[in-house]
Design a protein that fits this description.
The protein is mainly α. The protein is about 75% helix and about 0% strand. The termini are far apart.
Length: about 450
């Protein structure tokens, strides 16, 4: 498990986005982006599935997201300290181990037929994902020249939605399509024995993909453990947490990036989790059909990610982030204001605007932090707490049925998207501040040098 080399040596071996000497390690680390994308998006539809299987409200079902994204918050800082003390590779292996353990806990959870064991399993999975993201994101940034770091991370992140697409398809075809079609009201009318049989069958169906991904994770663990991976620092493993935190707390660009990331993740999880609710409650669609719109949203997201990564060669990160956030806000207004299929299309279209946000905020916030990067990455992963806090709030609004907005009464599922709208306003502000305070001076400096 020994790491060899350092960032300076790696950079010297290649000046491109991905130096040739680091291609194999880069590919292995990039697979992790797809693996946690699968976990994220096989889980989003489970909010609706658990609500029906266990006869819970939308708020109770959204506790899946509270537990899932709460693990990121709880483990990010310990993960960063572990990685700084040991290595990125060690952090990756711990993350894979926790991921597999949490997924395998679906076996006893489905046998117990109560909700809380699944919440524990989701929490452990995301403790593992927290290790993976805290390791993989800055590791990719360090695998080459600093001037191409944001492009490199955007490229690696492009494989995340591919895993997400597989997760969505798995949720649609292996889980939702095979669940007993009985509604919550129909289940409530069943006799206890029949209800127990239906619940046991449905939870067994939910269990299958999680056990399958656990086996894949174990295989990846073995491959990475057996592969020599490069170091990405000078080898200073002293923690020095106090001085590092003081430097980070005085860095406005970093602090604002943490805040922007909190709101971005909240917006992403809300928009993807509640597509099914929007389609079923607003248009009367079945859950399987509604999940199809989630898959379309992810295809748009993937396509937009590659397009926007290309545009970063010509457009400043802050300026592009601001533009996409404004677009996302306008589409969110359409989701709230326009009834029917057009409103659903606006909701699906938001994914095109979200595609570049996470890695761009991440790259901007960590720019130039040097040895503080490992600890700084923890703050950005902790900000994924936005995906834990905001979906239950939106679920509570949806449970209201209707919302009075002055002289108008709006379906609560549409009105609830005011929360993502607020998020996009915050992100647009961060993009504008980055563009006006950091990107423009850099661009002008480059222009002067070229003349």
């Amino acid at each position: 498990m020994a790491d060899t080399g350092n960032r300076t040596e790696a950079t010297a071996r290649g000046s491109g986005v991905i130096p040739s000497a680091l291609l194999v390690p880069f590919i292995l680390v990039t697979t992790l982006f797809a693996l946690w994308g699968f976990a994220n998006d096989v889980t989003n539809p489970m909010v609706k599935a658990f609500s029906r299987i266990l006869q819970m409200s939308n708020f109770q079902g959204s506790l899946v997201q509270f537990a899932f994204y709460g693990g990121y918050f709880a483990m990010a800082f310990p993960a960063a300290l572990f990685i700084k003390r040991f290595s990125y590779k060690a952090g990756i292996l711990v993350g894979l181990g926790l991921y597999a353990t949490g997924a395998l806990l679906f076996i006893p959870g489905s046998m117990m037929m109560v909700f809380w064991p699944f919440l524990v399993a989701y929490f452990i999975i995301t403790c593992g994902l927290s290790f993976l993201e805290t390791s993989a994101n800055p590791y990719v940034l360090a695998m080459g020249p600093e001037e191409t770091a944001t492009r490199r991370l955007n490229f690696a992140q492009s494989f995340n939605p591919m895993g997400s697409l597989l997760g969505m398809f798995t949720a649609q075809q292996i889980i939702l399509a095979r669940l007993n079609p009985a509604t919550a009201d129909e289940r409530a009318a069943m006799d206890p024995e029949a209800l127990q049989a239906v619940t046991a069958s449905d939870l067994g169906i939910v269990r299958v993909p999680y056990v399958g991904i656990a086996l894949v994770i174990i295989a990846v663990f073995v491959i990475i453990a057996a592969t020599k991976m490069p170091a990405a620092s000078s080898g200073d493993r002293s923690l020095n947490v106090g001085p590092t935190l003081r430097r980070l707390l005085s860095n406005k660009r970093y602090l604002e990036g943490v805040i922007a990331q909190f709101f971005y993740v909240g917006a992403q999880i809300m928009c993807w989790t509640f597509i099914i609710h929007y389609a079923t409650l607003e248009l009367g669609m079945g859950e399987v059909t509604a999940q199809g719109y989630n898959i379309v949203a992810m295809i748009i997201f993937v396509t937009s990610r590659f397009i926007c990564t290309f545009l970063l060669k010509y457009v400043s990160p802050g300026g592009l982030l601001m533009t996409l956030a404004i677009g996302g806000g306008l589409l969110t207004i359409g989701t709230i204001a326009i009834q029917g299929i057009v409103g659903l299309h606006c909701l699906v279209g938001i994914s095109a605007c979200m595609s570049l946000m996470f890695p761009t905020i991440y790259g901007i916030a960590l720019r130039g932090l040097g040895d503080d990067t490992k600890i700084a990455a923890a703050g950005l992963i902790m900000s994924i707490l936005g995906g834990s806090v905001m979906p239950p709030l939106q679920g509570a609004i949806i449970d209201m049925g209707t919302v009075s907005m002055g002289p108008f009464t709006v379906a609560a599922v549409r009105a609830s998207f005011v929360l993502p709208l607020i998020c996009f306003v915050v992100i647009a502000h961060y993009g504008w501040r980055t563009f006006s305070r950091h990107d423009k001076p850099a661009a002008l400096g480059t222009q002067r040098q070229s003349t």
